[in-house]
Known about the structure:
- Three copies of one chain form a homotrimer.
- The first copy, chain A, has about 475 residues and is an alpha/beta fold.
- Chain A folds into two domains: about 5-10 and about 20-195, Rossmann fold, CATH 3.40.50.720; about 200-440, no CATH class.
- Helices cover about 55% and strands about 5% of the residues of chain A.
- The first copy, chain A, contains 19 helices and eight strands.
- Chain A has helices at about 30-40, 65-70, 95, 115-125, 140-145, 160-170, 185-190, 200-230, 245-270, 280-290, 290-310, 315-330, 340-365, 370, 375-400, 420-425, 425-435, 440-450, 460-465; strands at about 20-25, 45-50, 65, 75-80, 100-105, 130, 150-155, 175-180.
- Chain A has an eight-stranded mixed beta sheet with strand order 3-2-1-4-5-6-7-8, sandwiched between helices.
- In chain A, helix 4 links the parallel strand 5 and strand 6.
- In chain A, helix 8 (about 200-230) packs across helix 9 (about 245-270).
- The longest helix of chain A is centred in the middle third of the chain and has 30 residues, at about 200-230.
- Chain A is elongated and about 100 Å long.
- Chain A starts with 20 loop residues before the first strand and ends with a helix.
- At the A-B interface, helix 6, strand 8, helix 7, helix 11 and helix 12 of A face helix 1, helix 5, helix 11, helix 12 and helix 14 of B.
- Chains A, B, C: This is STEAP4 metalloreductase.
- Chains A, B, C: It catalyses: 2 Fe(2+) + NADP(+) + H(+) = 2 Fe(3+) + NADPH; 2 Cu(+) + NADP(+) + H(+) = 2 Cu(2+) + NADPH.
- Chains A, B, C: One of its GO terms (biological process) is copper ion import.
- Chains A, B, C: It is found in: Endosome membrane.
Amino acid sequence: MEKTCTVMLPLTMNSSEKPQTVCIFGTGDFGRSLGFKMFQCGYSVVFGSRNSRMSSLLPSGAEVFSYSEAAQKSDIIFIAIHREHYEFLRELTEDLNGKILVDVSNNPKINQYPESNAEYLAQLVPGAYVVKAFNTISAWALQSGALDASRQVFVCGNDSKAKQRVMDIVRALGLTPLDQGSLKAATEIENYPLQLFPMWRFPFYLSAALCLFFFIYCVIRDVIYPYVIENKDSTFRMAVSIPNSVFPITALTLLALVYLPGVIAAILQLYQGTKYRRFPDWLDHWMLCRKQLGLVALGFAFLHAIYTLVIPIRYYVRWRMRNTTLTKVITKKDDPFFTSTAWHSDSYLSVGILGFFLFVLLGITSLPSVSNMMNWREFRFIQSKLGYLTLILCTAHALLYGGKRFLSPSILRWYLPSAYVLALIIPCTVLVIKFILIMPCINNTLKRIRRGWERDSKSSKSALNGKSDI
Amino acid sequence: MEKTCTVMLPLTMNSSEKPQTVCIFGTGDFGRSLGFKMFQCGYSVVFGSRNSRMSSLLPSGAEVFSYSEAAQKSDIIFIAIHREHYEFLRELTEDLNGKILVDVSNNPKINQYPESNAEYLAQLVPGAYVVKAFNTISAWALQSGALDASRQVFVCGNDSKAKQRVMDIVRALGLTPLDQGSLKAATEIENYPLQLFPMWRFPFYLSAALCLFFFIYCVIRDVIYPYVIENKDSTFRMAVSIPNSVFPITALTLLALVYLPGVIAAILQLYQGTKYRRFPDWLDHWMLCRKQLGLVALGFAFLHAIYTLVIPIRYYVRWRMRNTTLTKVITKKDDPFFTSTAWHSDSYLSVGILGFFLFVLLGITSLPSVSNMMNWREFRFIQSKLGYLTLILCTAHALLYGGKRFLSPSILRWYLPSAYVLALIIPCTVLVIKFILIMPCINNTLKRIRRGWERDSKSSKSALNGKSDI
Amino acid sequence: MEKTCTVMLPLTMNSSEKPQTVCIFGTGDFGRSLGFKMFQCGYSVVFGSRNSRMSSLLPSGAEVFSYSEAAQKSDIIFIAIHREHYEFLRELTEDLNGKILVDVSNNPKINQYPESNAEYLAQLVPGAYVVKAFNTISAWALQSGALDASRQVFVCGNDSKAKQRVMDIVRALGLTPLDQGSLKAATEIENYPLQLFPMWRFPFYLSAALCLFFFIYCVIRDVIYPYVIENKDSTFRMAVSIPNSVFPITALTLLALVYLPGVIAAILQLYQGTKYRRFPDWLDHWMLCRKQLGLVALGFAFLHAIYTLVIPIRYYVRWRMRNTTLTKVITKKDDPFFTSTAWHSDSYLSVGILGFFLFVLLGITSLPSVSNMMNWREFRFIQSKLGYLTLILCTAHALLYGGKRFLSPSILRWYLPSAYVLALIIPCTVLVIKFILIMPCINNTLKRIRRGWERDSKSSKSALNGKSDI
């Protein structure tokens, strides 16, 4: 599985041509790993350090010199040193003049300094060409070879020749460079490895809030209400029964929220009569994190599935089954079989399973390597057609679960309806609006708008132009 | 998760060297997204348009000119315009002379025009070097950065220098260009994004047909038969019981059909005594979609697993359990425990679970990113050894499920055997033939044939040559 | 899904520039597939062969010549011939002088010959530049296009210009070349496709040994003991009950073993007072296969989940439920409901489900394409924080399962405690040590050591230097 063949490699080059020499300042973990990897890929590596004590950890074949000696051996120098210690480079200004300095550093916190490390380096050594690169790659990944070609290395710098040299090295190491423009992009590139799931934050907090709300709601209805009215201790319901109400509700609501922004966007476009107006920021952000919302919803659906399958193992359920049978025996009541009840029970289970199956399919196709294999038409088919089918099946599952008792007043406790009734509001709204939107008359207008047509008469001329562009 | 750092980027290049300028004709969604992305990656972007009204949507820093003005600013021009509007380029023939024109267009339908858009463009502007590229990338993916380095961009064109220029731009955007040859390949490249799962069509229709057939078969045996003979309403079985017969049968049949073509190919090679004869087309096509067949089978197996686990929650099953107990109470019959029944019930469950587990493992290893990590020997081990083990376990699961009552005549209804008996035909056939094929005498002949040996005496000389090639 | 558009492609190049010509020696499967692929990507392909009989299988448009004729047509020659037949190349030494020879061969066994095939080739034809490449790619994958850009091609050779030429061809075929240095690396590269899951061997054997040990342990306690003491036949337990004890125990033990080496490493670092000393080899190897250990553990956890969910379908369980009810009816005993038992049963189920859910999440994030999307901080968060949470939940699940009867002597059989008690030893140990390690006083020392600080006073000066490096 792992490319272990890259771990140990021959150390000599008996080629007639001299290999390219690169210099690395700093013999810390990252410096050593980078040196090791470059050495493997055919480069001759020279380290710059204050002393050469820790040479046992360095790749054999590499040499360690003082900073200024090392700098003279190569025209490209990787600065694998913490920013706090950049000061000493000021003394080497002459040695570094005209050299390419590659800043690979990261800071522990976002926006810790007013300027990026790479820009700071460029100020310290004005005569050098500073390029930012490699900071998104970890020492461990470099050394263990746990990187494949799809790993991108963000590169930026003001001098395009210097940048090109660094990008060639990135490619030689089997990685993909991605030019990010001038050195001003370094701030972004340095912030990137410090982010913690920025796109997942909104779905996470939203689902946590939904879970909490519905948990409290269910506790009131299913634990506090019976305790107050009948003085019955149902606290044990908080372990399985209530989570198994909260999770499906959250899943269904989140799934509907995946499709709600698309519906809102369509209404906005119909209302404004053009697609050439930006959506409000909240809608843009919402649309960008639809995938994450959907995957969180899938997580809750998965939990719901297991919590449901575990039901017959629970002590409470087994006890109730025994108790029902015993009661029938004692009261000598008949236990007739109702086909309609069997239909009802089986159909909501079946619809739920099919919905869950499609949901899992959606989840699998959103794996990066799978969605990469699909063309745009296939991706749209999966995410839109199959997605709506999933929403329809899951909503039908909840509707069938309710069945007849849906809005019967006997189910109200302290005027609170069952939690799943609340869960149905957003999905049903989305489905109804979507149903209206796909009716031919409205759909055709929408299609024309999305192809560039505009309703305003005065702009009809330019619209004709707009229409001609992809 | 998402490379959000690419969304906002610095807009100035304070490099001493002038960045390369590219020109884009058309300010539609794709033109703008492409411009935005190229701008991010350090290019200077110029738009050509009839008017400059919609400039608010264009990346700031980009300039909009008339077509002929814009064309003069760069020697590489992206034509982000619908094919229907190419006509106007005829007037610009002089401006476009000697320029590289990149055709990024797609058509709404497959084979809509006699020639590809790129070839049409080359006819319109004979003095330009036309290159087809980027049509498989969506505007949305370009803008949102939801592309990684493993995304391939198909490129074709008659002039290799022009093609090289375009491929360099593709690489600079962090994508992988794939040279597809001359401009005649444009037809294929333009059809590619219009395909809808071409490899999945056969497995999909086949499984749909199998499902339908077995569903009707089961309805006749389990619903119509009891209704006719005993006047019993068992329609509710159509919701869970019958799907849970149909899905495993379809899964097992499809899984066997994954291994059948390999067995047929081996027999053909043994019969013909050479591997240097093409297989019939149907066999070739069948072999190419084995992976898809297997994944569809896995889907059905997954459904079978959930439908089975849901059994004890069903109203019908709970009622039957209560009923059995009540009957025992009333008739005061003893309820002895049979170890053999326990063995039988537990062993078919256990074998089924292990088979399903291996099946899921096979599915995971067929994910593109996972199979990419494996070498050829590992891939073969998984898909062949583990695959046959899965088939053996799943067939054993069905055989054990049947148990003693397998072919007892009492199980026939209207001369129809149980559905699972039909399900066993293909898997058992495949396993028996495979068992014969791996017997040393036959296996050795097969191995020799696959290494290039031929049975015909007259070709033995050339076979010797053939043997020497990989 | 599949890039079928690459299957059939135009055969003519009407470009004014002549396409580059490559020569392939050998018309076997690999030679043909390689020629086909290169032809698709715009190269002109010439085959060298002893005769041209099998031309029907060759890509149309390609020409077949004798070896020496073919060699004259191109300066780059792919040797798609088995090593045993290299001898004849000796006769062509003059034709091959100064040419680039690409060795694509593989051997059937690891270390079959004293030197690698590529080095042998270099000895045979001393005047040629030998480059090793493409041996990790299969003929089938080349022809079917089932390769994406993340597939790496290892390349090595002594002449960097020749290597560069080959790497350009690799890129043109849409693959990623990875320079592995001089021709001495060829041995490693040739061994790579012959490996069979080297990183999975230790986890596999370890888990097999654990399974076997616990299976025998459980058989003694649950089958032999009741047979000897009560003369009761419980052999049927070996099908489901005992596996369902063995699998969770193995899963929990393996999961704990994923986190044990990290804890040992921390203790070693604390004890040695430095991070600049290599860990013992066994610890290094153990740390490198943590991911594989974790995935094997997930497999067992998955099996445990299904074996558990299947419980209520088992004949034995159904019989026992009926039996319990019947006994209650006959003895007319009351069947009171214990809230505490309900709490206990529900809470261990709930904790187990949540633990399994997190475990599955960990497994998904270890998919190559998913972990590639994460930055280092996100990856650490998932694998460390979420990993420990999973371990805590799974350990709690086992502890709660035991409940009160944990160490009651009545549960001992032949002085053997229940198997799950043994399962808890390693997880509890790991969690207790980890808990001690994260206490502020110890954690701070550890953090300083990991930032380069050393306890030894004499090396404090160099430590200061070390601290400055990344």
